Amino acid sequence: MSHKNKSIDIIPSKNFWAGDPQAAIALVGYGDYESEECAKAHEVVLKLLDEYQGKLKFNFRHFPQTRIHQKAHKAAEAAVAAGQHGKFSEMHDLLFKNRRNLGTISLREYAIEAGVIDKNFISNLVDSVFGWTVREDILEAVRQGVTEVPAFFINGERYFGKIDYAHLSKAIDGYLQKSGKQRA
Fold first, then answer.
1. Does a structural domain hold residue 10?
2. What is the pTM (predicted TM-score) of this model?
3. Average pLDDT over residues 155-174
4. pLDDT in tens, 62-87
5. Is 163 contained in some domain?
6. Does 7 fall in a domain?
7. CA 8 to chain centroid
8. Hey, CA dihedral for 78, 80, 84, 89, is it positive or negative?
9. Is the pLDDT of residue 3 over 90?
10. Mean per-residue pLDDT, 170-174
11. Chain centroid to CA 35: how far?
């Protein structure tokens, strides 16, 4: 009896953007769903997206710190899985909100809450269907010099300042000024 391997096209993390797709400023952040610092940075990003509507788009990439956060990689896979159903942002928010409870069954509950309808969700997580997608994010981060999270890039340039609203908004204003656009 022969089995045909079923291949699926996976939408990578780099395709999941929040904000205006035509925005002049692209903010890319690398993070870990179990990290307190990344959760704080997530709140800053939400505020930035609200304040810079039409001028800022944001993309989250995964960089789970698996030596200290054993559930972060599987949580990242769950976010990618939700993204396959157009629910990345919803799942992303729920994972940060529930960062202390990221077991497999909980991940399934968050997926349902996010609006994901997929009878294979748990089996895909167990089989690490989206594991390579997360690994691609990690490898890209390493190539860009990321060693810890949260880490941000603004229009492709590494941001090394303090990760809070005041400092990031000032940096974004500088990029807007360079592009000839102003904050509304």
1. no
2. 0.92
3. 97
4. 999 999 999 999 999 999 999 999 99
5. yes
6. no
7. 21
8. positive
9. no
10. 96
11. 13
The answer to whether 88 and 79 are in contact (CB under 8 A) is yes
Q: What is the domain range of residue 153? A: 17-179
| Secondary structure of residue 58 in the 3-state scheme | strand
Q: Residue 41: in which H helix or E strand, if any?
A: helix 36-51
SS3 176: helix
**Residue 171 vs residues 41, 78, 144, 156: alpha-carbon distances, Å:** 15, 31, 19, 13
Q: pLDDT tens digits for 21-37?
A: 999 999 999 999 999 99
Per residue in 83-118, pLDDT (tens digit) is 999 999 999 999 999 999 999 999 999 999 999 999
Q: Mention every residue, 6+ apart, whose C-beta is less than 8 A from residue 74.
A: 102, 104, 107, 125
pLDDT of residue 103: 95
Q: State how far the Cα of 68 lies from the Cα of 30, in Å rounded to an integer.
A: 16
Distance of alpha carbon 157 from the chain centroid: 18
Cα 79 versus chain centre, distance: 8
Q: By the 8 A CB rule, do 104 and 70 touch?
A: no
Residue type present at position 171:
A
The count of structural domains within the chain is 1
Is 49 a member of any domain? yes
Nearest by Cα to 127 from 59, 77, 53: 77
